[in-house]
What we know:
CATH topology of the largest domain: Immunoglobulin-like
Strand content: 35-45%
CATH architecture of the largest domain: Sandwich
Strand order of the largest sheet: 5-4-7-13-10-11
Mean pLDDT: 87
Structural class: mainly beta
Order of helices and strands: EEEEEEHHHEEEEEEEHEEEEEEEEEE
Radius of gyration: 25 Å
Distance between the termini: 24 Å
Largest sheet: 6 strands, antiparallel
Low-confidence stretches: 1-17
CATH class of the largest domain: Mainly Beta
Amino acid sequence: MLLLGCILSVLLHVAAGFTTSLSGKWSVISANYQSTQNVHGGWDMYSAFYDEKSFGDPLEGYRDIESRWLAKRNWTFIHKFSWHRDQRDFHSLELYIDGIDGFGCLFINDRKLSCLDNSFLNEFWRIDGLVKDGAENILRIEFKSSIETAMQIANSIRRHGDNIPPPDCWPKSYRGECHVNLIRTTQASFGWDWGPAFPIQGFWNIPKLVYSRYGIRLGEGFKFFSTYRQRFDGESLWYADVLIEVRQIDNVGLLDACLLLDLLEKPNVHLRRCFHMGSQPSKLDVHAVLLEGETDITPWWPNNIETGPHVYTLRVRLVGPSDELFDEAKHDVGFRTVELIQLKCELY
């Protein structure tokens, strides 16, 4: 028998005051084809063709096969944006990528930032030394075909005499592509038994510019742990811990900072946790005890069960010694424990 504290951090909302979404006009280019559209969410080469009415719904008929030529080409995505140094009170500027699905390289004003080989990782790049103040800047993402990338990796493994991880290729009835387990992309995009294959080049989330005051900000890491115990009278006492990542982006010297934590639905839950950053760019995981023996907590339940789902809003503010605001985020959190019971297996 085992009691597990439930981790129910649902979503990180990046504070709008410190980010700029690179939405607006995006162009996608390959060989003799180019499309420019206003983009405010996820986008890929299939979306470009569908939005321009070049072909109908890709999920109808045999359009997954008819559009396969799109996936075998290399596509380049381009976005132009202007930027003014005095438009933000900031110390550092980063490009934030989360949800790029494909393989290729990123460029800012023809300067290579990095090349991507894993669709499931988010990345930050320092770009304040690359963007032009008061002028047009160009973000370019040069993708390579996921189909061709997987094939190249398989051929390289063969040349070295090693075994290729299965499956080699799907059965012909799947109408899919080969070597999906050699690359980090959406697994189903290479086809499956009764689903279509749409190898992707594009992004699920629009890239963002992230501004950091004083060279310090909240990181992506966040963990929330809740547990409870029952008193002799049967009432539940809840306990909660959080682990919050703080990043120092630049060498700004020794810095004192604090985290202000507020559970917005419970005004009595307020916490100030101060800490010290080093003199070099670094990452620090800050631990804080949010609740100790708290009553009057509504547990989280799944959809359509009891009161579910019930979540609380945890506001996290990163401030300086004089409470000047560096960064802010909100998390949806829930309170629940799970009891796992292992029963002896009877063999017949």
